[in-house]
Amino acid sequence: MNFRSCQYIRKLPDLSIATPNIKELDLCQCGNLIEVHDFVGRLDKLEKWELNDCIELQVLPNCLLMKSLKHLSLYGCSRLEKFPNILQEMEGLKFLSMVRTAITELPPSFGNLTGLHQLYIVPGNEIPKWVNHQSFGSTISFWVGSKFPTFVLCLALCLDRLAYEDTYSYVCVVDIFTNGHKRRPIMEKLFDGLQYDHLWFYGAHHSLLQQVFGDLIEGDRNHVEIAPFNIASLGVHVECICGPQNSLIIHDNCENVDDGYNDTELPPLLSSMGFSTA
Key word Methyltransferase present in the record (predicted)? Predict the structure, then answer.
């Protein structure tokens, strides 16, 4: 269903009765849209929902119960401050963008997005404290055991000062070297239309990494280096074998961080990907 650029909608009504089986809902650039009816958050056949540049949007459904949803973009919803509660597990959602929104806090139920692979978060350029390996530069390295663990990669996209209304776009390619051997890039991503510094998170599950890099593993101690191009700083949260997770260890291109952060309270993205606190 396509409402793109419709300027007549101020409140999106309940669509669950008239169109309960829609799979795509495009509300991009609906400049006067302020509110979306609660029952829209219960369209369990909806797979793709885009609200890019709805600059007046302030109210989304209080809860999302959308078992089929795979893609949700809130890019440019600059007045949106609250993200909906996720009452049940939504393992289908793989992509979520909150770039250029006013959202600064996620609800505890965010952990129910158990399938989330890519998350564009609010503007910022500081790697979060919970990331246990951090680097100022474009490479980071750590040691893993006999199997590739799950990791969460955080990239800080730091832009030079731009003139008013200018935007910045570039392609980021992330290479992974295992014991000095390179495979195809684990990720290639176009960042388009950025105006501010942003953080971007990418979760790579151990099953995928083991499939791609498993034959490069040699014994019980293996060196991994991650090298995204043209990044100001980056971090990786990974269950590594670099030594005590909470001691300060500084390498040429990696810092194992201890700043008083309580590692028993993992962010939802990590918990949902199988990280433990043990």
Answer: no
| 232-267 pLDDT tens trace | 788 888 888 886 543 333 334 444 444 443 333 444
**Is 128 found in the same domain as 58?**
no
pLDDT digits (tens, 9 = 90+) for 117-161: 777 665 677 887 778 889 887 889 999 999 988 888 888 887 765
**What amino acid is encoded at 246 in this protein?**
N
pTM given for the model: 0.63
**Cβ neighbours for 124, distance < 8 A, ≥ 6 positions apart:** 156, 197, 198, 199
Q: How far is CA 129 from CA 117, 236, 245, 262, in A?
A: 20, 11, 13, 10
Q: Report whether 75 contacts 48 (CB < 8 A).
A: no
The CA distance from 144 to 202, in Å, is: 19
Domain boundary among 88, 122, 156: 122
264 backbone dihedrals φ, ψ, rounded to 5°: -75, -10
